[in-house]
Amino acid sequence: MFPNPVLQAPAPIVTRRLRLRAPKLEDAFEIDPIYNDFEVARWINVPHPCPTGFALERFQRFLTFPPHERCFIVSKKSDKKQRAIGLILANWTDAEKPPIIGFFLASRFHGKGFMGEALDAALKELFRLTNAEAIRASFYDGNIASDVLLKKKRFKPVGTSMDFNRATGKTEKQTDLILTRSVFEAE
Predict the structure, then answer these.
(1) pLDDT one-digit tens code per residue, 158-170
(2) Helix, strand, or coil (residue 123)
(3) Which parts of the sequence belong to the N-acetyltransferase domain (predicted)?
(4) CATH numbers and ranges of domains, the chain
């Protein structure tokens, strides 16, 4: 339903302040401390504390460039080493549902507009890549930053669901949202 003709590292996307690029194995070592920051992990459903090797295992999968997902490493354009400051992951394994997107940013980069800028570029690429009519997202109750950002990007709430959060060890309520292609393109 959602094709992905690119089975190799996709070209980077450059925005005003950021570069969204394909993952490299070394990124796991920059993402690992973010996974271990409870203020981030609490909202992204990774184990906390994050076990040694967890990030490395995930990145080994990302490096296969699965045809049903796209991982964008977010880095500052001004950083010559292109160190990872965050990640956007989209997945469209379930052909019955629109692709789903998730994201996170290192705490020290919160509140600077970086994720909004990165999401604009990632959403444009995902609509182009998948030809989907909508993209889904979710956030745990209490995640005010994601709530505000997704609504600013014109995602609309479509309901709630329950999800086991590995960081807190509890089943938690989350808000489910959708962004339609027509709303996205009306900008």
Answers:
(1) 999 999 999 999 9
(2) helix
(3) 17-155
(4) 13-185 (3.40.630.30)
The CA-based angle 103-181-138, given to 5 degrees, is 30
Tokens representing 164 are 């086991």
User: What average pLDDT does the segment 71-87 reach?
Assistant: 97
Backbone angles phi, psi at 46, to 5 degrees: -115, 155
Amino acid letter, 83: R
Write the burial class of residue 50 (CB in 10 Å: 0-12 exposed, 13-18 middle, 19+ buried): buried
Token readout for 48 is: 């906390």
Q: Assess contact for 73 and 21: CB atoms under 8 A.
A: yes
d(CA 145, CA 168): 18
Judged against a pLDDT cut of 50, whether residue 39 lies above it is answered with: yes
Q: Does pTM surpass 0.90? A: yes
- Residue 4 predicted with pLDDT over 60: no
Distance of alpha carbon 119 from the chain centroid: 8
In a 10 Å sphere around its CB, with 0-12 CB exposed, 13-18 middle and 19+ buried, how is residue 130 labelled? buried
